[in-house]
Amino acid sequence: MLLDFSPAFARLITHVLPKLIMKREQLVSLETIARGAVAEQFDYELTKVLGNIVDPNTNPCEARTITIKVVFKPDMRRESAAIKASASSSLAANIPVTTTLFIEERGNSVIATEMSGYDQAELPLK
């Protein structure tokens, strides 16, 4: 005996149900957690790190890091877990700049001028 299903029921059995089962059994990965948001955060931090590496104001040899933190909070029955994930980076600091200022009193004021652009022969002597 052949069962005759309605078109809606047949669609449910052949199209919808397998997709629901596949979705439930889908394994998570770094690329799929939170619909790819963690991988997106990594890409954002990577852009910052690469920009910091090519920045001439930073030490080219200093290490930079990207940290991905994933916190799992399981329920009491151990059947599900809430996940909190984030990515962050540690960049090289700007190289300090140095200069020399000449400071002098002029009347009731104190003024400072920068040494840059002077020849040693032009430096004021005291």
Q: Main β-sheet: number of strands, strand sense, barrel status?
A: 2 strands, antiparallel
Give the helices and strands as they follow along the chain: HHEEEE
| Outline | rod-shaped
- From the N-terminal CA to the C-terminal CA, the straight-line distance is 115 Å
Spatial strand arrangement across the major sheet: 1-2
Uncertain residue segments? none
Number of helices: 2
pLDDT averaged over residues: 83
**Helical amount among residues, as a percent range?**
25-40%
Give the structural class.
alpha+beta
Strand content: 25-35%
Core attributes:
about 130 residues; alpha+beta; single chain
Short summary of the structure?
With 126 residues, this protein is α+β, with helices and mostly antiparallel strands. 29% of the residues lie in helices and 25% in strands. It has one domain (7-122).
Spell out the blueprint of helices and strands.
Blueprint: H1 7-25, H2 37-54, E1 65-74, E2 81-90, E3 101-106, E4 109-114
Antiparallel strand pairs: 1-2, 3-4
Give an overview in words:
With 126 residues, the protein is an alpha+beta fold. It has one domain (7-122). The chain is built from 2 helices and 4 strands; from the N terminus they run ααββββ. The chain has helices at 7-25, 37-54, and strands spanning 65-74, 81-90, 101-106, 109-114. The strands form 2 sheets. The protein has a two-stranded antiparallel sheet with strand order 1-2. Strands 3-4 form a two-stranded antiparallel sheet. The longest helix is centred in the first third of the chain and has 19 residues, at 7-25. It starts with 6 loop residues before the first helix and ends in a 12-residue tail after the last strand. The model has no long low-confidence stretch (mean pLDDT 83).
